[in-house]
Amino acid sequence: MTAYLKYQKLTLGWALFVLFMCNMKMGSIAHSPRFFPGFDKLTHCCFFFMFTVLAIHGLIAQKSNFTFFDAVKMFAVAVAFGALIEILQLYIFTWRSGEWNDLFADSVGAGMAAFSSLIFVKR
Fold first, then answer.
1. What residue intervals traverse the membrane (predicted)?
2. Using an 8 Å Cβ cutoff, are 40 and 22 in contact?
3. Torsion angle of C-alpha atoms 72, 49, 108, 7, degrees rounded to 10
4. Contact 51, 78 (CB under 8 A)
């Protein structure tokens, strides 16, 4: 387990950042004219794209061969993390709202990263 965590330090740091950002109170800034409709979904997609890229990077550094199953596994981990955040928003951090659309955006970001990683690694 320690060897696995050795390669996932960036992923864990990013996960803490995402957890903090997705559960903080936004206040009136959420209604600022600088944010366009859908900005929240784009942010979720980008957060989980980066999370999955970092997780796959750590996995590739840990073991030399990267398989389709590894990409699917990292995708599943990212979606589970996204679902955890939405559950926390729904039941614990009640100033935020857990939404299916956010989980979908998380899944799209994770899927884009897993697909991109498969293409680049296999090339």
1. 12-29, 41-60, 72-92, 104-121
2. no
3. 20
4. yes
Whole-model pTM? 0.89
**Looking at this protein, which amino acid is placed at residue 73?**
K
- The helix-helix angle for 68-91 and 9-23 (nearest 10°) equals 30
d(CA 47, CA 43) in angstroms, rounded, equals 6
Is the four-CA dihedral 93, 96, 101, 104 of positive or negative sign? Answer: negative
How far, in Å, are 12, 52, 57, 96, 106 from residue 70 at the CA level? 18, 11, 11, 32, 18
